[in-house]
Amino acid sequence: xxxxxxxxxxxxxxxxxxxxxxxxxxxxxxxxxxxxxxxxxxxxxxxxxxxxxxxxxxxxxxxxxxxxxxxxxxxxxxxxxxxxxxxxxxxxxxxxxxxxxxxxxxxxxxxxxxxxxxxxxxxxxxxxxxxxxxxxxxxxxxxxxxxxxxxxxxxxxxxxxxxxxxxxxxxxxxxxxxxxxxxxxxxxxxxxxxxxxxxxxxxxxxxxxxxxxxxxxxxxxxxxxxxxxxxxxxxxxxxxxxxxxxxxxxxxxxxxxxxxxxxxxxxxxxxxxxxxxxxxxxxxxxxxxxxxxxxxxxxxxxxxxxxxxxxxxxxxxxxxxxxxxxxxxxxxxxxxxxxxxxxx
Length: 344
What we know:
alpha+beta; Nucleotidyltransferase, domain 5; Actin, Chain A, domain 4; 3 domains
């Protein structure tokens, strides 16, 4: 007889996929990237190995991200990627032989059709049964918020494809908003800004490095700079330029404003009693976007509510998904725990 220790929690993210085993924590954490041979249609690399190929592949190999804005863009490739990660996780289990039940994260604004695609892909990848959990709900569990108590908790999960804002109480989402503005959007904003201002084309990985090194939600006293390399669009030659933090603040300004607006809109729809709880408890930030310099201070200033970054923002959703395995019956009994809201 196989217990819950065999069950898996999967944070199927636009940027990264993380797999949890109950009692062991995160056992797999790799980019949601797949390299495909166009001639044979076979997968040649997944995860870190595929990510290292971005921008460096020959004509017959294409590197794809099968997840876009938190939902499946390429069904077959997503299923193959999940199968690879589940196999990796199963190698680290203490016992073998049984198919796993899987709790898998979905954006709170997902449609029924999109949710069904995730569930079907998870089963195709080898799951016995698959249950959806809303990303902000998983993030709140991972951040140790009292989600099962009659008190309001607010979480803002800034992931790769979506930013999920939710108010949670008594084991469910009271109000939520999901916007397709997150980490990947920030990278794209940096790429567009540098192309327009300097006529310089930079790669996806360079844009991410810029965001991590000098990215900020608002200007700071020390205007740090960074040297970057790219291809000059006028003469086609490689070129190195130096950019400042203030420039990246300008590049990210519109995206940051959209995230702040989503937080404000969710607060406006929150019942008064829960609003008072949030004022006392504060807002918790999770996801890779929570690491953007000054983002917590910008949200706090705009809402007049304390904002805290979770202890482990990058793995918060995955950890929460793993912990939710203890409540797997809750997801069996409440298939609509992933509250649906409008995606913008």
